[in-house]
């Protein structure tokens, strides 16, 4: 049975909403709430459905903020859903392009469909999973121009969608071997459902096409004239997406976009006119300077580390290791900066001595190009009761494994 069924109609929906309101004003542990529901004679299926939604709504606040309290989720749908701050960016692209009716294909629980509808556009949400379709229907309940369709995206006739007034598409191909969270990720874009080539081909019938892809997608499979963008939120790489020319005011190429929940945004783009499938620019190795910097993962995945290095006058510490270094690295939103204090052997005894001499009481450990386990290294360190908070970066310098003792610098941007 569809586990959402009990809460998508009366009296389940009213019970869920009333308990949600009570939890926000006078929260009760869900275990206690479950016992109270059972004691009051609520059917087991309904009680389980309500408790599941309350738990998912609480977990969803990290992605959807207060909107989560009025949404319906599935466990897998929540894990795979676009964060609301990112979905809002997608929706803005569609509205700015002049689109009027967007098909969200493989919509999941409808994060993107919800953002698109919220900007006043009509939306057609399609998913093969009955639970997802039920969830997105509930989430789009207040939008007259929203329609939900249960079906396989692979069976859709794109020309027929165009005849129905659809003038833009956002697709999120299935990239796992199964529906469960434990299923394996599919790395070959042609094994996605639908295959990436099929999605890209839809642009021949409907020129506005956007597609969510794996952040690790190879640059050489991206169409040269499209725009590829990698997005991080609060320093976490959350998605990559490809946009057809009609949805890419930036022009062709690649970019990374850094967002935070407060709304701040920073973008770094490839040189104007560069093809989106151009190989990443090589970055020159430089001697370790007074500062070392760790680039945001969106910068690295987008192949724009060289662009960032050019803008900041930096080099990398070793071949194919994405730590930037220089004697005068400016404050920059695209990396975290550290002041280099000392370099020592990558051995616990040497690192402990260096940290103790600098009054370290706590330490964070980072690594690139060094085969160590940060947790094991941390346990082996012997620190005094100092007050300094320091960082150990395990990496390679001049072909040798080294530990760089440094101090994290605040961002003032």
In short:
This protein is 30% helix and 25% strand.
Task: Describe it.
- The protein is α/β, with parallel strands linked by helices.
- It has three domains: 5-64; 78-269, Vaccinia Virus protein VP39 (Rossmann fold, 3-Layer(aba) Sandwich), CATH 3.40.50; 291-408.
- It is 30% helix and 25% strand.
- The chain is built from 13 helices and 16 strands.
- The chain has helices spanning 12-25, 30-39, 44-64, 75-80, 84-96, 111-118, 130-139, 158-163, 196-201, 297-301, 305-312, 348-357, 374-380, and strands spanning 101-105, 122-127, 146-150, 168-171, 209-213, 227-233, 236-243, 253-259, 265-269, 291-295, 315-318, 321-326, 335-345, 360-367, 388-397, 400-408.
- Strands 3-2-1-4-5-7-6-8-9 form a nine-stranded mixed beta sheet. The protein has a seven-stranded mixed beta sheet with strand order 11-12-10-13-16-15-14.
- Strand 4 (168-171), helix 9 (196-201) and strand 5 form a beta-alpha-beta unit.
Q: Report on the biggest sheet.
A: 9 strands, mixed
CATH class of the largest domain: Alpha Beta
Radius of gyration: 25 Å
| CATH homologous superfamily label of the largest domain | Vaccinia Virus protein VP39
User: What general form does the structure show?
Assistant: globular
Count structural domains: 3
Amount of beta strand: 25-35%
Q: What spatial order of strands do you see in the largest sheet? A: 3-2-1-4-5-7-6-8-9
First and last CA, distance: 52 Å
Q: What class do helices, strands and sheet pairing give?
A: alpha/beta
Number of helices: 13
CATH second-level architecture of the largest domain = 3-Layer(aba) Sandwich
Give unreliable regions as ranges: none
Mean pLDDT across all residues, rounded?
93
């Amino acid at each position: 049975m569809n586990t959402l069924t009990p809460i998508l109609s009366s009296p389940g929906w009213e019970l869920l909403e009333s308990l949600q309101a009570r939890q926000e004003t006078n929260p009760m542990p869900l275990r206690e709430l479950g016992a109270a529901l059972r004691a009051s004679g609520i059917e087991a299926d309904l009680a389980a459905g309500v408790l599941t939604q309350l738990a998912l709504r609480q977990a969803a606040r990290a992605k959807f903020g207060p909107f989560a309290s009025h949404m319906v989720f599935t466990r897998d749908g929540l894990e795979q859903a676009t964060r609301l701050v990112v979905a809002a960016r997608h929706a803005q692209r569609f509205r700015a392009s002049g689109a009027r009716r967007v098909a969200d294909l493989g919509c999941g629980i409808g994060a993107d469909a919800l953002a698109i509808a919220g900007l006043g556009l009509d939306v057609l949400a399609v998913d093969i999973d009955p639970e997802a379709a039920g969830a997105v229907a509930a989430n789009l309940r207040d939008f007259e121009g929203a329609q939900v369709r249960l079906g396989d995206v692979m069976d859709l006739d794109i020309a027929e969608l165009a005849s129905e007034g659809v003038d833009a598409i956002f697709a999120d191909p299935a990239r796992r071997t199964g529906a469960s969270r434990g299923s394996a990720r599919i790395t070959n874009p042609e094994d996605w459902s639908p295959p990436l080539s099929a999605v890209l081909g839809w642009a021949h019938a409907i020129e506005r096409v956007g597609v969510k892809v794996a952040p690790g997608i190879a640059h050489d499979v991206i169409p040269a004239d499209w725009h590829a963008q990698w997005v991080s939120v609060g320093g976490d790489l959350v998605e990559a997406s490809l946009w057809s020319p009609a949805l890419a005011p930036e022009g062709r190429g690649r970019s990374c976009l850094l967002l935070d929940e407060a709304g701040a945004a920073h973008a770094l783009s490839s040189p104007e006119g560069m093809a989106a499938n151009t190989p990443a620019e090589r970055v020159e190795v430089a001697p370790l300077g007074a500062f070392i910097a760790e680039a945001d993962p969106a910068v690295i995945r987008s192949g724009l580390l060289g662009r960032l290095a050019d803008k900041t006058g930096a080099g990398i510490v070793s071949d194919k290791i994405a730590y930037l270094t220089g004697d005068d690295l400016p404050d920059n939103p695209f990396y975290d900066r550290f002041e280099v204090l000392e370099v020592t052997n990558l051995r616990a005894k040497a690192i402990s001595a260096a940290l103790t001499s600098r009054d370290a009481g706590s330490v964070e450990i980072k690594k690139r190009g060094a085969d160590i386990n940060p947790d094991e290294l941390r346990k082996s360190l012997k620190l005094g009761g100092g007050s300094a908070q320091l960082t150990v970066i395990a990496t390679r310098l001049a072909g040798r494994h080294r530990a760089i003792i440094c101090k994290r610098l605040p961002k003032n941007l």
